[in-house]
Design goal:
Elements: H1 3-10, H2 18-31, E1 35-39, H3 45-57, E2 61-67, H4 77-84, E3 90-95, H5 100-109, E4 111-112, E5 115-116, E6 122-125, H6 131-144
Parallel strand pairs: 1-2, 1-6, 2-3
Antiparallel strand pairs: 4-5
């Protein structure tokens, strides 16, 4: 989906500026990651832009992780992605109090011969903006991030 089309449909949904969304969208078009993860999705506006870029590429998948409370947001990420027609590019996961639990489980699942096999090409940390949570998320996400 072209950026302008996504921007029109996502207008008014918080929490990403059009400028930041353009940078994120263009990054995905340029780098062409196959497997992406977004930590902290809120209403799913950033997720929508990333899914639109993956749609434009014709491939790729975005895993989105946030807290359980995000089910009460208006709109929800599910509603945002359905409105774009891009839900097929995204899997949504919720944890009780932090996406670090998802990352911990992902690291455990990726252990092969005593080391973590990376499984993501792009990690977008857009969640709590709190050192206690995001400091740990950075460490865990780095273990899951492929070279390059």
């Amino acid at each position: 989906m072209k950026f302008s089309n996504a921007a029109t449909r996502l207008k008014g949904i918080p929490h990403i500026s059009r400028h930041s969304a353009r940078i994120l969208y263009d990054f995905i078009l340029t780098e062409q990651p196959r497997d992406c993860i977004e930590l902290g999705f809120a209403h799913g506006a950033g997720s929508g832009y990333m899914a639109a870029a993956l749609d434009e590429l014709g491939r790729g998948h975005l895993t989105c992780v946030d807290i359980e409370r995000s089910r009460t947001f208006d709109p929800t990420i599910e509603q945002t992605l359905e409105g774009l027609g891009l839900a097929s590019f995204v899997s949504i996961h919720r944890e009780i109090n932090s996406y670090n639990w998802f990352l911990k489980k992902a690291v455990e699942q990726q252990i092969r011969d005593g080391r973590c096999e990376p499984c993501y090409d792009f990690v977008f940390i857009d969640g709590s903006k709190n050192w206690t949570i995001d400091g740990m998320a950075f460490f865990l996400a780095d273990k899951l991030l492929r070279e390059g």
